[in-house]
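It is worth pausing here to work through a concrete case rather than discussing structure prediction in the abstract. The textbook approach is simple: state the sequence, then state the predicted structure, then interpret. We follow exactly that order.
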Amino acid sequence: MKNLEELRKIREEVKKSMSMRDGAHRGKIVVCMGTCGIAAGARETMNAFMQALDERGISDIALTAAGCAGFCEQEPLVEVEIKGERPVRYGHVDAAAANRIVEAHLVGGKPVGDLVFG
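Step two, the predicted structure:
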């Protein structure tokens, strides 16, 4: 850390990240972050979701992490839960897939069929 302005910037980024995890939301995205998920790129997937939500100004979707869901071959594994709808589980979610999910499922209301797992 070099100065007070840099500290303020870090604080704002952390506050924005934390706001994605709490409060009243119409739904949430759960990224599995067990060791198998992290090894498969789940951190990059989480960052891609954060960026995609931020770019589109979507603030009513919580973004959270979970442990291993037991489907290691499908990692990075993501579940999208919208209130009043059945949860949708997506497999092999990389940054490009995260953007597709945000655009089609969260904005457009239609799950991305070729990424749905189970």
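Step three, interpretation. The chain has one domain: 4-115. The CA atoms of residues 16 and 28 lie 15 Å apart.
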